[in-house]
């Protein structure tokens, strides 16, 4: 039981012949839809999913001071040994950097120090951008597969991977907990564990990323696999009529020009979907052409 | 070729998660109609009964939203004609010119011939313009036996900042016409026994009449965190044209006895009402909706004032609580109060000069109304829902001070009206 006055950590409700679990994590409303009438099974699945998402959130949040990210970022100049899971994520980050020709970079978070995406009109000056770029670049990181060393002033942030990784991990753990089909929805990043008995799709309303809090939801029907959305609908700068989205190009230190407002991709895993969506946005005006070449199902909002 | 990015990515993800993944099968559900339907009964004790069926259909097309509404209602029963009670029997002619009806001594003069079927339809088309604007264009029409309404409206929404603030600007224009059987009564003409108006050298009625209504709307909606939303609106409504009700009369009373004075053969003297031909209303509306846990509470207040001296206050409150996972209950409280129009009077006195304007319609008098209701809903998943609503409404008014005299002393000139509303709905 949650202490009186505290918000419940999770909620379980019956919805027709199935159960819906809800919790809040990673700054998003999260949901698990479970095709089972068994309350105990649903409750165990929800606990597993919420537990895994919260574990990943605390382990990799850059806002905490008690986790591996903090240790790595505070250890600038020194070599920091990491555990196997973190090593897997850093290997993955290195591969993403390579596949995106340097445009996806887990060290680009320090650009936030000079770019404030609050809808305002203040742009950083070019000298500041040049200076901060000295602290950006995965190629400047010393990573040997088990230990990492950052240069002074550099930071890593796995925020661009974390939610998709959590959705995939949680979906895999849910699949081990219950034979029933489940849909994990972490604030619009979706993963299905296995198809439903009648192969009917899961229908999920997600906030249309390009629309306001008052706007309509769009309904996504997902039978198998995952969908992720990348975008900057609410985070941007406006200066002289030019909109600077919050997706940064770490090679220039400036926001990606002509980036779509949001990109959604369907793929086998939420990570594949999310990374392709992010890569597409990093292509700016070429987002649609890139997605077409990759032959993935996608939705682009400009 | 960049194609190998997706394949390489799948391999890298497989290494990270441990094991390959299957394909994806996904689709965006589009062009889906949503419907909200209900049937309702409104019944005033011994007076008007109204049965209605409503349908709302919403279809989304790639960001644009088409909303269609249709309401069919059938009104029967009796409605106060404006005349006061009398200790003597009273006879009135039917508004449509078909015969007359008699009211027993002491009874409220109710016109028993009210019967009408109204069909109202409207369509609105909302579409985003760029990322921060939406435009909503609409048209409406309704038709009943003697009344036709046509209207157009337009709204623009503009989102500010982090989309927690929305500004709305709207305009609407309506043109209505009324064409009662037997014509529209002229101002202050007396009610005549059934006769062929065409032969009357001094006709008491004209043909159809019309009015126009122009509305302006300014609103701001603000999201406060994740649990609270508030709204503040101002609206201006200017009506012009024939604003009198063709079925309402005023009794002309003897200033000493309080009895109706004699009128045309076989009848007392009743004059058709006369309202100004302009009305400008200003309304201010504030609403706040708050969610705590799974409970949702909303409260609103509306202030209205117009150049007829009517001032009204409306307080409205809903509290929705879930019962278990699939049911909810929602009590509703509403309080309404208004002051009378400056030309409202329960009757006219024989020998007094005729005022510029006068009405005895209780809806323009000093009155209060209270609604107490409850709605129960059952959620069926995928946005489907059954609901049932039961409400009790009571309206009471006060006559102007000193308006009771002579034989009127024995009557309540402003009897209260009770009504119930029953509604069942299905949304899918």
UniProtKB/TrEMBL annotation, chain A:
Enzyme Commission code: 2.7.1.180
Positions with a binding annotation for Mg(2+): 160, 278
Cofactor(s) the protein needs: Mg(2+); Mn(2+)
Catalytic activity: L-threonyl-[protein] + FAD = FMN-L-threonyl-[protein] + AMP + H(+)
Keywords linked to the UniProt accession: FAD, Flavoprotein, Magnesium, Metal-binding, Transferase
Cofactor note: Magnesium. Can also use manganese.
Molecular-function annotations in GO: metal ion binding; transferase activity
Pfam families in UniProt: ApbE
Family of the protein in this entry: Belongs to the ApbE family.
Protein name, UniProt field: FAD:protein FMN transferase
Organism: Candidatus Polarisedimenticola svalbardensis
From TrEMBL, chain B:
Pfam family, one: DUF3570
InterPro entries with a match to the protein in the record: DUF3570
Taxonomy, superkingdom: Bacteria
Keywords, sorted A to Z: Signal
Signal peptide: 1-26
The UniProt record lists the keyword Signal: yes
Keyword flag Signal: yes
Protein name, UniProt field: DUF3570 domain-containing protein
Species: Candidatus Polarisedimenticola svalbardensis
Biological classification of the source: Bacteria, Pseudomonadati, Acidobacteriota, Candidatus Polarisedimenticolia, Candidatus Polarisedimenticolales
């Amino acid at each position: 039981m949650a202490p009186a006055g505290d918000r419940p950590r999770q909620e379980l409700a019956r919805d027709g012949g199935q159960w819906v679990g809800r919790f809040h994590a990673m700054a998003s409303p999260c949901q698990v839809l479970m095709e089972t009438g068994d309350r105990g099974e649903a409750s165990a699945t929800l606990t597993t999913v919420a537990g895994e998402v919260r574990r990943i959130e605390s382990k990799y949040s850059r806002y905490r001071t008690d986790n591996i990210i903090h240790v790595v970022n505070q250890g600038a100049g020194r070599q920091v040994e990491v555990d196997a899971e973190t090593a897997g994520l850093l290997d993955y980050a290195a591969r993403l950097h390579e596949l995106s020709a340097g445009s996806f970079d887990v060290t680009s978070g320090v650009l936030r120090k000079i770019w404030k995406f609050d809808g305002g009109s203040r742009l950083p000056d070019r000298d500041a951008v040049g200076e901060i770029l000295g602290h950006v670049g995965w190629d400047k990181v010393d990573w040997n597969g088990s230990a990492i060393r950052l240069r002074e002033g550099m930071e890593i942030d796995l925020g661009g991977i974390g939610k998709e990784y959590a959705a995939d991990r949680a979906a895999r753990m849910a699949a081990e907990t219950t034979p029933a089909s489940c849909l994990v929805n972490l604030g619009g990043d979706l993963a299905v564990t296995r198809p439903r008995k009648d192969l009917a799709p899961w229908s999920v309303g997600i906030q249309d990323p390009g629309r306001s809090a008052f706007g309509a939801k769009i309904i996504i029907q997902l039978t198998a696999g995952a969908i992720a959305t990348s975008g900057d609908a609410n985070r941007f700068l406006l200066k002289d009529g030019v909109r600077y989205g919050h997706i940064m190009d770490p090679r220039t230190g400036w926001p990606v020009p002509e980036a779509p407002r949001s990109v959604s991709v369907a793929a086998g895993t939420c990570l594949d979907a999310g990374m392709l969506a992010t890569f597409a946005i990093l292509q700016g005006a070429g987002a649609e052409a890139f997605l077409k070449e990759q032959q993935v199902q996608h939705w682009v909002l400009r | 070729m960049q194609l190998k990015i997706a394949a390489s990515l799948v391999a890298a993800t497989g290494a990270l998660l441990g094991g390959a993944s299957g394909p994806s099968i996904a689709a965006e559900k589009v062009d889906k109609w949503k419907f909200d339907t209900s049937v309702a009964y409104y019944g005033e004790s011994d007076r008007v009964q109204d049965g209605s069926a409503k349908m709302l259909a919403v279809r989304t097309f790639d960001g644009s939203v088409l909303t269609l509404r249709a309401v069919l209602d059938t009104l029967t029963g009796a409605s106060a004609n404006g005349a006061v009670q009398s200790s003597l029997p009273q006879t009135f002619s039917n508004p449509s010119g078909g015969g007359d009806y008699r009211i027993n001594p002491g009874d409220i003069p109710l016109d028993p011939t009210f019967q009408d079927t109204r069909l109202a339809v409207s369509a609105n088309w909302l579409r985003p313009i760029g990322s921060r604007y939406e435009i909503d264009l609409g048209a409406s029409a309704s038709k009943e036996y003697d009344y036709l309404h046509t209207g157009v409206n337009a709204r623009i929404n503009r989102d500010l900042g982090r989309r927690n603030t929305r500004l709305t600007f709207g305009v609407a224009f309506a043109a209505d016409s009324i064409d009662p059987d037997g014509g529209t009564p002229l101002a202050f003409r007396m009610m005549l026994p059934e006769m062929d108006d065409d032969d009357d050298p001094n006709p008491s009625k004209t043909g159809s009449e019309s009015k126009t209504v122009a509305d302006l709307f300014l609103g701001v909606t603000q999201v406060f965190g994740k649990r609270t939303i508030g709204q503040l609106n101002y609206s201006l409504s200017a009506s012009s044209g024939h604003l009198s009700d063709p079925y309402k009369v005023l009794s002309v009373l003897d200033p000493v006895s309080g009895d109706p004075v004699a009128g045309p053969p076989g009848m007392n003297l009743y004059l058709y009402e006369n309202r100004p031909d302009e009305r400008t209303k200003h309304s201010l509306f504030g609403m706040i909706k708050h969610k705590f846990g799974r409970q949702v509470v909303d409260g609103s207040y509306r202030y209205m004032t117009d150049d007829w001296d009517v001032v009204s206050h409306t307080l409205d409150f809903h509290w929705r609580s879930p019962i278990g996972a699939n049911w909810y209950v929602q009590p509703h409280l509403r309080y309404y109060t208004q002051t009378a129009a400056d030309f409202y009077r329960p009757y006219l006195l024989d020998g007094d000069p005729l005022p510029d304007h006068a009405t005895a319609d209780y809806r323009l008098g000093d009155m209060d109304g209270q609604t107490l209701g409850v709605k129960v809903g059952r959620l069926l998943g995928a946005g489907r829902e059954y609901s049932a609503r039961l409400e009790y409404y009571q309206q009471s008014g006060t006559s102007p001070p000193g308006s009771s005299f002579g034989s009127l002393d024995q009557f309540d000139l402003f009897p209260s009206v009770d009504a119930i509303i029953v509604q069942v709905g299905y949304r899918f």
